Amino acid sequence: MPTMLYLHGFNSSPNSIKARLMLEHLRQKRPDIHFVCPQIAATPAAAWAQIAAICDQIEGPFGVAGSSLGGFWATRVAERFGVRAVVINPAVNPHILLRDYLGEQQNPYTDEHYQLNEAHMAELEALRVDAPSCLDRIWLLQQQGDEVLDYREALEYYRFARVCIQKGGDHAFVGFEHYCAQVVRFLEL
């Protein structure tokens, strides 16, 4: 059975809107695909260890989709495991972006409290794929109206990937439900 791994963003959860939309799409249209959407650990090294362990345990073909920080992780999964990935308004340089969030954090979905510190920024920088060799297996879904991330960073970083750029929108990616079937097709599941 093919598997879709969905990776949520920073301070999010499997209960995020896009994760729920994808799960519902698969239930209705592709019940033959196993959907895996873990609650990702809050800190980078723990998150990557968790994601890599999940990928190691998947039997059969799989693809990955990720939004925001999940897109960062999905790129690393594509590079490390040789699978296809869809990245939605991805964080390209989270080690820079998340410096604005250093200190006490609370995940609004899980109510988890934790500290984000400089050591975590170093972990993110060390985990970044600097020159992805997997861009032929990545599809970038990007909206210019993203209020959290500068969409131009993603366009530059993923310039050799398949790209869908839209005017307007926001960080949540307005209209994602219209892309679910295309995401599945791109992942070849």
From TrEMBL:
Among Pfam families, the record links this protein to: UPF0227
- InterPro entries this protein is in? AB_hydrolase_fold, UPF0227/Esterase_YqiA
Q: What is this protein called?
A: Esterase YqiA
| Source organism (scientific name) | Oceanisphaera psychrotolerans
Show the taxonomic lineage.
Answer: Bacteria, Pseudomonadati, Pseudomonadota, Gammaproteobacteria, Aeromonadales
